[in-house]
Design brief:
Elements: H1 6-12, H2 16-28, H3 37-53, H4 76-82, E1 91-93, E2 101-110, E3 113-123, H5 127-140, E4 145-146, E5 153-163, E6 166-177, E7 180-190, H6 199-219
Antiparallel strand pairs: 1-2, 2-3, 3-7, 4-5, 5-6, 6-7
Helix pairs in contact: 1-2
C-alpha cells in the first residue's frame, strides 16, 4: 500500500474522518491518481485506427507491368544485318511467367559464318530492384564500359573464347529502364577460318539490337 504523505499522517491522529476523505481525493482525483485503464485502451485503439486508415506513401508505381513481345522487339532489318539467313520472326523461349521474363532467339549459319542473337526482357517490382539487379550483373561482367543515351543506364562487354581452336566472340549489353531490364547477347564464329568477328562488329551489333529492344519496351509503356 502507498504510504500517505507526512501531513496526512499527522492529521490522522487528530481527525480520522477528515484524513480518509483527503486521502481518497488524493488517490482518485488528485496528483496521485492514475489514468483509467479504459481511457488508455480507447486512446490506443484510436491511434491504431488512425494509423491503419492513413494512406501508404511507400508503394512505388511500376512503369512497366509486363514484358513486351520479344520477337517483335527487334526490327526485321536489324535481324537481317546481324543474323544473315535467320527468320525475322525469331523463336520465343518458353518462360514460367511471361509477365516477368520473355526471351527471343535468332540464329543462322550462312556458309561458314555463324551468328546468334538473344533479346530478353525482365520486369521487376520497382526501380530499386532493377537497379540492384543491374549493378550485380555489371559486377559479374567486368571489363566493359557504359553505353550513353540508352535507357536509364546501360553497359556493354565483349569476350573472346576458344574451344578446339575455334574462336567465338560474344557481346552482352545490359540496360535498365525504370523497373525493367533488357539483356542482349550477340555472338559469332567463322567455322572455315576458325576466327571470330572483330570486337567492334560484335559490340556495335549488340548495341544496335539493344536500341531496338528498348524502343519497343518504351513503346509499350503502361503509365
Amino acid at each position: 500500500m502507498r504510504s500517505l504523505p507526512l501531513p496526512l499522517t499527522l492529521t490522522a491522529r487528530l481527525s480520522p474522518v477528515v484524513v480518509l476523505a483527503c486521502a481518497g481525493w488524493a488517490l482518485t482525483s488528485g496528483p496521485l491518481a492514475q489514468a483509467p485503464a479504459a481511457e488508455h485502451k480507447a486512446e490506443g485503439r484510436t491511434a491504431k485506427q488512425s494509423s491503419a486508415s492513413a494512406p501508404s506513401t511507400s508503394a512505388e508505381t511500376k512503369t512497366y507491368a509486363a514484358a513486351p513481345a520479344p520477337c517483335a522487339s527487334v526490327a526485321a532489318s536489324t535481324v537481317k544485318s546481324l543474323v544473315p539467313g535467320a527468320k525475322a520472326g525469331g523463336k520465343e523461349i518458353p518462360s514460367t511467367d511471361t509477365n516477368v521474363r520473355r526471351t527471343c532467339s535468332w540464329n543462322a549459319l550462312q556458309g561458314y559464318d555463324y551468328r546468334w542473337l538473344d533479346v530478353s526482357f525482365e520486369i521487376t517490382d520497382s526501380d530499386a530492384d532493377a537497379t540492384q539487379s543491374y549493378t550485380d550483373r555489371v559486377k559479374e561482367k567486368s571489363g566493359g564500359g557504359d553505353v550513353p543515351g540508352l535507357g536509364d543506364s546501360a553497359y556493354s562487354v565483349v569476350n573472346l573464347t576458344t574451344e578446339d581452336k575455334q574462336q567465338t566472340r560474344e557481346g552482352t549489353v545490359l540496360v535498365r529502364a525504370s523497373n525493367a531490364l533488357v539483356i542482349i547477347t550477340y555472338n559469332g564464329s567463322d567455322f572455315e577460318s576458325k576466327k571470330a568477328p572483330s570486337t567492334d562488329v560484335i559490340n556495335k551489333g549488340a548495341i544496335k539490337a539493344a536500341k531496338d529492344a528498348v524502343a519497343a519496351l518504351e513503346g509499350g509503356r503502361t503509365n
